[in-house]
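Work Package 3 (structural annotation) set out to generate three-dimensional models for the target panel prioritized at the project kickoff. During this period the team completed the workflow that converts sequence records into discrete structure tokens, so that structures can be stored uniformly alongside our sequence database. As a representative example, we reproduce one entry of 230 residues exactly as it appears in the project archive.
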Amino acid sequence: MGIQMTPILLAPDDSPPGHPCASTKFYQSDLALLNYLLQDLRALVRKFVYGDIALTAYETLTWQVHGLRRRTVVCDPLGLARPTQVSIVGFFGDRRPESDNGPVEEVELGLLAEFRNYPGILSYSSVELVDKHWANLVVHRKPADREAWRSSEVHRHAAEEMAPQIYRSVRINNGSLVDGVIGSETITIESTKYWDYDCIPTWHGLRTLPGIATPTTDALPGERSEAIQQ
């Protein structure tokens, strides 16, 4: 399956016909879910800062909420504790109904192991949704770390070879968090990339946004992290 290399540039209010993955209806729902993942991570990091828990670099924490799985990998606890701007990547994939969980788990475990080779990655969070769907949030030190991560052969294999087999479409949000994970602000999305794998060649779109954020809904330390089993 070929890939349309040059993305179609989309205006903030464009919902291109034939490509429902790029509908503007996903703006607020994606942002809300990313901020939900952020609150789990924020509560965890604040507990670490206050000395309530210990965090080990690259330790994988897993738990369930209402029978749906969650996973957080804190790659750099001290880096997450700094009140400085960080970059975020949010991944959303529309799973093919016939795909099973095996390849997805294999790809994710391979990516987690690769994080050690890219110190700019501060954390990785994932949440299971209904119908075998997942959403992921990655926190980087700065935008250049995203580019470095794209050079990973493991990441390239996952994005270019496995994703079209597992997903009908993928959208990736790039953004920032002005005062870091430890702060009180919410995520701002600055651009979104789309891949529609049900087209030949694969349709690829890019939307630059004026900065879409949600009102601050700061959680108190530990509000969500009580479910985390270490």
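Helices lie at 26-49, 77-80, 101-114, 143-150, 153-166.
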